[in-house]
Amino acid sequence: MTRSYPPSIPTSLFQTLLDANPTAEDKPRFDFVLHIGMAAPREYFTMEMCAHRDRYLGKDEAGQTMEGDTLWRDEYKAPEILRPGFDTEDVWKRWKSELTGVDVRPSSDAGRYLCDFIYYTSLVEYWRKDPKAMAPVMFLHVPGKSEDYDIEIGRKVALGLIGAMVASARRTKGHEGIDGAFEHPYAGSSEQE
Length: 193
Hints:
alpha/beta, 4-stranded mixed β-sheet, 193 residues, two-stranded antiparallel sheet
């Protein structure tokens, strides 16, 4: 069964996103979480390799920014950069090898706007629950095309990424179960990254 949590969110208030995201205490337990966001001017798909805590200076539709917000840094003491618990290089190689004729790229910059914000919000809640546990979260940016053909390509790309995530997770630790089965994804990260 496929569930979407939370449902699609329009580009508006950062606070709406914080309110919609479950906390570490009440987060549903999923094997994998794949966020999908649209990067309208791009003609290619990107697998986002990390998310950022700070420097969200762009204004949303309500004219709000996250500039000056210190919750994650000061109260949570969260790292500046969080990464999924997957071996992202392995996921990337598997994903790319399954897709021919489609422009897919790795990225370390989800945009410092709502997509990066959503990604970090998910990762930080897993991190808060257990900094040593695997964060089964990934973010996929898709082009802003909406013709039937483009939607079908996007579906294949998303399913390919999910398949690569599952295959990589199984390879990493034999897939005894997601919880606790992976190495600490934040080891070695620093404020300078």
